[in-house]
Write a structure and sequence with these properties.
By secondary structure, the chain is mostly helical. Helices cover 61% and strands 0% of the residues. The protein has one domain.
Amino acid sequence: MLTKKHFIALASFIREHNRMVEAGSESGKFEPAHIFALADFLRMENPQFKRERWIGYFRGECGPNGGEIK
């Protein structure tokens, strides 16, 4: 089963990938529709998954545990 650690690592990877795309060193940015579809899948994999918190972390609205950004 996927755990909170997996969810955070995945969101961190996607955030970094998108930063690299914006810097021109990667291609194929993850768009919001991709993130929402992935969040739906993660929720099916783990009923305790906090979809809105995960999306918020991906967007840079909160830290990995849902709290303030350090």
